[in-house]
Amino acid sequence: MTQAAEIALKGVAKRFGTTEVLPPLDLTFTAGAFTVILGPSGCGKSTLLNLIAGLEAVSGGEIEIGGRKVQDLPPRARGCAMVFQSYALYPHMTAGDNIGYPLKVAGVPRRERMARIAEAARVVGLGDYLARRPSELSGGQRQRVAIARAIVRAPQVMLFDEPLSNLDALLRHETRAELADLHRRIGATTVFVTHDQAEALTLADQIVVMNAGRVEQIGTPADIYHRPATRFVASFIGHPPMSLIAATGDGTWLRLGDGSPLVASAHQGQVLAGVRPEAAVLDGGGAPLVPLHREDLGSHVVQVFRLADGQTVAVQSPAGRPVPAEAGLGIPDGALHLFDAETGIRLVS
Ligand SMILES: Nc1ncnc2c1ncn2[C@@H]1O[C@H](COP(=O)(O)OP(=O)(O)OP(=O)(O)O)[C@@H](O)[C@H]1O
Ligand SMILES: [Mg+2]
């Protein structure tokens, strides 16, 4: 086990020229925790990671790793190891030499190097492949060489930038499980960037959801899924995404644009009413639904319906359950998420 270090960002900001990519940001990564930074393409995830690693300079603010200010230190002095989407292995070196390269650069004697290479390779399950060159390894094996190269120095901090996105679906799934296991064994503070919500939900102790350089929500996977703090988080997490229906509350009902009732609620004023497709039911009562299209996904079916005012709602049901002739939208207690229509912020419901 390495000694884990807390990472604290204090007012950290980044501009490229006159473009502000990250407005001043305060963020703490708990020592030893697995934190996933999740957000759409271009929201600033890699930039944030590069600032921690020292591959980009901050435009303002301070970064502390293990209580030490590092924002002016070069990358090698920060105690972070980084794994990228592209494995960036040396093609002419064997897997073993690639893994040991950081130790060689650091002047670690050969005997100790060999022992640490063997241990890192064992941790990622590559013990039998050390003599092969990258061209003789599969994509998943190459990515594991890159991970072994990162852990060989026993870093306090592991930074991952979409390390699985070059792998096919099955290998991604396998490697994801291996990474979770690896984190449990190594215990380094881990920051993992992805735009894949399944990776975030399965790997993270804590998820930071970003949108356009800003943090939308920080929480456990369960918080993020069950209590999304904003409309953005609600629509970004969940597959298929949560339906968000514009409605107006009169104190008894939330009503659709044509005045027809959607669901009982004491809320007044304009809201977005959110319901996850897997929580919505076709109960024959409730707001009338007109079927638009359906996707049969084997184990379940996702159907999109039109509401009385033309808005749409998705409902997921187990395969083989017929749609009632007079379908109505049922929103069970606890399944309704309300967001302010203007600010998109979650309302206490
Ligand atoms: N060197 C640079 N100069 C100018 N703008 C940059 C530079 N690097 C990144 N940007 C801009 O900063 C924003 C954030 O980029 P970043 O690479 O951090 O996004 P990301 O969240 O990692 O996206 P992706 O999921 O596509 O990797 C983008 O709008 C990008 O165009
Ligand atoms: Mg990126």
Q: Into how many domains do the coordinates divide?
A: 2
What spatial order of strands do you see in the largest sheet?
6-7-8-3-9-10
Largest sheet: 6 strands, mixed
Number-wise, the strands total: 20
Radius of gyration: 24 Å
* DSSP helical segment count: 8
Average pLDDT over all residues = 92
Helix and strand element order: EEEHEEEHHHEHEHEEHHEEEEEEEEEE
Domain ABC transporter: 7-237
Keywords: ATP-binding, Cell membrane, Membrane, Nucleotide-binding, Translocase, Transport
GO molecular function: ATP binding
Protein name: ATP-binding cassette domain-containing protein
List keywords for this structure.
six-stranded mixed sheet, Rossmann fold, 2 domains, single chain, 349 residues, binds adenosine-5'-triphosphate
Compact overview of the structure:
With 349 residues, the chain is an alpha+beta fold. It has helices spanning 45-53, 95-105, 110-123, 139-151, 169-186, 197-203, 221-226, 231-236, and strands at 7-16, 19-29, 34-38, 60-65, 68-69, 80-83, 157-161, 189-194, 206-211, 214-219, 243-250, 253-255, 261-264, 268-275, 281-288, 290-296, 300-306, 312-318, 328-330, 337-340.
